[in-house]
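Researcher: Here's the sequence for the chain we discussed earlier.
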Amino acid sequence: MTAVGVDRPPTRLFLAECYLHAANPREVAAAMAAVRAAADLCAPPVTVRCCLAVPGDDSYFGVFAADDAEALERVFDRAGVSFERIVEASAVPLDRATGMPGVEPVQPG
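Model: Thanks. This is the structure I predict for it:
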């Protein structure tokens, strides 16, 4: 339980899958700016972590920190930005030597 008026960071990561014809970076940035502005007004907090546009697939993906998927859905609704789905995600730390967690580096022949 948190004290009233005390901010705390969101505890979970979510991936929002969105579609936009050609996923033009300028239009994606405008949509994400609207989402960020709506998130700034939200309690509990929702924070934007990153966004990837995939123009060849008419899609973009946002990674967000939030307490639950419903909070993120409310942010998108408030921003007037549509989404296909929101799913919980996990950060995967990459090993510096191999680039993959738990994978041994390949030794040259």
